[in-house]
Predict the 3D structure of the following.
Amino acid sequence: MNKTKAAYLEGTVSIIVNTLLFVLKMWASMVTGSIALAADAWHTLSDSISSIIVIIAAKLAGKKADKEHPFGHGRWEQIASLFIAVILAIIAFGFMESSIRHFIDKQKIEYGMLAIIVTIISIVLKELLAQYAFYVGRKTDNSNVRADGWHHRSDALSSVVVLAGILFAKRFWWIDSVLGVIITFMLFYAVFQILKEDITKILGEEPGKDLIDKITNEIKEIYNDDLNIHHVHLHNYTTHKEITFHIRLRGNLTIGEAHKITVEIENRIEEKYGLITTIHVEPLKATI
């Protein structure tokens, strides 16, 4: 699956569906007089904004490396997903404020059958969009698309609040406010997950033990001695990843012989795992 094309397609589908849902919800809100549906409609339209960010980020991230950016432009995806996280946080604060205000005012919500149908359609379509974005994000390792998926889910959750209000508002006047607070905390958790993933990649990641073991086994097929791999660091530039580590070689090897070993290791790792590798050589008796 081509990463850039997949992000374009996900963003385009999202914009089309969200725009149609916005029109549908606004029509229902005007017919029923529901303020909640109108607010939910504008929340849906905000998803189109995040999808536009996805498309722009995919375009920027797909640019080749140049003199000013020798490691490429892949981190535009992470920068864009930070913007999406901010949008989600703003929406969450809006939910919290509205929920508290409705609870204090003991505000009741009046809906009709049209509102029920429109809200159910919205929940189903938005969750399908979320699952699609999560799928594309997993297949392409695109955190920006995954962030867009959380945005879709936030809109589905807001529609769940509306639906709960429709079904239980006459019996429990406070249900809309309570569910609003619960969903707010769910949104804040989504923001935390997005920020945690992006900040970890920007600051640098420690490779997992599984990856280190695989690389160690590959090296043993080339060089029989224990090279004592250490100081392993993974650099994630989104469009490509680089790994650096130290190895120990016998001190009686010539520079040419040591160079040949490192080149063989670097080529094997790039071929098997798609990682650009840089290796620092130390004499065997060196201490870490």
